[in-house]
Recover the amino acids of this structure.
């Protein structure tokens, strides 16, 4: 086994580098094909998530493999090799196996113990099989990783050590409110941008936490509608909208979760500022006219729909000049800061007027959180500059990484580490034993040829043998050969499974003068048998 992994993750690189080095789906496919076309690699698989990019390969030369894989990652990620190199890590053979099994168990995740990585490993394997770049080694490795990850979650309490990025992100959004996630989310409206695996998980989590409504926006409308349908079947209130309606939905929701595959920003600071200036908070709109001093809720509703405004008398007490607070003025050049000052004043007043506590209104230190944003995309979907807007709370991959660094480790982590170590040893033993199998098969094939030749010679010297005598003699000779080979072949497999056992195959070939081409032919035949529709191409001869 010559397994090599070269990669970078949230542990080795800053988010700014990970963000630039992210790989789109078509780029991953090109990377795999180019890796297989390179000199050192005969198999390849890529694991690309929001916080890691790793290229796995079966190579025949370590140093050449590291150089080639590093270069390929740089070329396809768009980050120069010189800039990327300081953040790359390299694992080889058993250390590479240990790394992937640790990743599968959630030990290397941003949130320790999260189980979503198993789905991402499964996707990586499926891509390698589909493109015929994953051979026997990587198929065995990734299948083993999936089994070990499931074992860790079923046999230990690693789930208690962490959770999905979605849940952790919502917890971070609720920080400072003095409320649990369920209490914080109750009654809120949420917008989920994207309909992939992470976005679907986010939408389902929001429904479970008790939000009043989930709106799903996606570039492919059918996928958004399907996700909304699934959420409805699960008991939630959900609807789908086209991406063109995102700006409108921003004016009426409390929470936004975004995770798309876009290469550029989905929400800019200007988008969010404009939406906040035009929004009608659902908690205040119903009784906006009863709130003394502003009338912003009614004004926003009327202004946005009819182009009208509100009278100066309705804005008594507002800290922003009347003309800046009138909604149509936002379209006529009123600055976002004035709109936000007005919106925060109106939001705070109406929240208290309607009997909501400052904590329930999301008020932190006197400033209400009017819009909570969770960006789980890599590269980011939401402009980091929105955190400077009054009334906006943004949690993204970078802030999650900082928060997760301080999270306590569960006692079960040690148990999972023991499982990983045991499984690494078992995998290595199985792979080393498998490597000697073609040699053993070639030896037995040679012995069978010897038996056949000797029986043929005997028949020539004793032509009077009848059929029964000939069969008995043939069977006796075969039994003798099988008994002579049984103990050595069983023992050599045992020895080969131990560390450093790879040399036993060479010794066997030397002792019995086996033709290397015959052994190679056995390997090719075995690989062809494993080229199945459900398993993909198991290797390249």
């Amino acid at each position: 086994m010559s397994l090599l992994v070269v990669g970078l993750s949230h542990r080795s690189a800053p988010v700014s580098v990970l963000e630039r080095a992210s790989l789109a789906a078509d780029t991953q496919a090109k990377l795999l094909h180019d890796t297989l076309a390179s000199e050192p690699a005969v198999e390849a698989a890529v694991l690309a998530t929001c916080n890691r990019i790793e290229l796995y390969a079966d190579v025949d030369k370590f140093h050449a493999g590291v150089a080639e894989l590093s270069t390929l990652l740089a070329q396809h990620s768009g980050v120069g090799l010189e800039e990327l190199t300081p953040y790359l890590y390299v694992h080889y053979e058993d250390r590479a196996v240990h790394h992937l099994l640790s990743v599968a168990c959630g030990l290397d995740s941003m949130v320790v113990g999260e189980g979503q990585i198993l789905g991402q490993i499964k996707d990586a394997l499926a891509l390698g099989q589909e493109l015929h770049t994953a051979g026997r080694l990587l198929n065995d490795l990734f299948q083993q990783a999936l089994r070990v990850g499931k074992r860790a979650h079923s046999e230990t309490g690693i789930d208690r050590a962490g959770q999905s990025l979605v849940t952790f992100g919502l917890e971070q959004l609720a920080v400072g409110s003095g409320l649990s996630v369920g209490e914080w989310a109750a009654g809120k409206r949420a917008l989920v941008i994207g309909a992939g695996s992470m976005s679907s998980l986010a939408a389902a989590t929001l429904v479970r936490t008790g939000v009043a409504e989930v709106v799903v926006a996606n570039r492919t409308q059918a996928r958004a509608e399907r996700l909304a349908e699934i959420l409805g079947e699960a008991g939630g209130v959900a609807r789908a909208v086209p991406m063109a309606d995102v700006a409108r939905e921003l004016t009426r929701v409390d929470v936004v979760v975004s995770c798309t595959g876009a290469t550029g920003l989905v929400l800019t600071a200007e988008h969010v500022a404009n939406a906040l200036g035009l929004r009608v908070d659902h908690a205040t709109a119903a009784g906006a006219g009863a709130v003394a001093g502003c009338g912003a809720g009614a004004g926003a509703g009327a202004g946005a729909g009819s182009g009208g405004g509100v009278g100066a008398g309705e804005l008594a007490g507002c800290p922003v000049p009347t003309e800046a607070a009138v909604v149509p003025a936002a379209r006529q050049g009123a600055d976002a800061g004035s709109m936000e000052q007005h919106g925060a004043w109106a939001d705070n007043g109406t929240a208290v007027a309607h009997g909501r506590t400052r904590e329930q209104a999301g008020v932190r230190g006197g400033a209400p959180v009017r819009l909570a944003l969770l960006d789980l995309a890599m590269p980011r979907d939401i402009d980091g500059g929105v955190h400077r807007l009054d009334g906006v709370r943004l949690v993204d991959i970078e802030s999650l990484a900082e928060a997760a660094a301080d999270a306590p480790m569960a006692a079960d982590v040690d148990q999972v580490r023991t499982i990983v170590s045991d499984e690494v040893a078992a995998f290595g033993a199985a792979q080393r034993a498998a490597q000697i199998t073609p040699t053993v098969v070639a030896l037995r094939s040679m012995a069978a040829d010897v038996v056949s030749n000797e029986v043929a010679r005997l028949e020539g010297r004793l032509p009077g043998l009848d059929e029964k005598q000939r069969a008995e003699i043939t069977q006796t000779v075969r039994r003798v050969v099988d008994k002579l080979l049984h103990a050595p072949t069983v023992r050599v497999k045992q020895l080969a499974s131990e560390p450093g056992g790879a040399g036993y195959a060479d010794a066997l070939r030397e002792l019995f003068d086996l033709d290397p081409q015959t052994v190679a032919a056995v390997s090719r035949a075995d690989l062809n048998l494993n080229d199945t529709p459900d398993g993909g191409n198991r290797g390249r001869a």
In short: The two ends are 15 Å apart (CA to CA). Confidence is low (pLDDT under 50) at residues 282-366, 527-541. DSSP finds 24 helices and twelve strands in the chain. The CA atoms of residues 96 and 382 lie 34 Å apart.
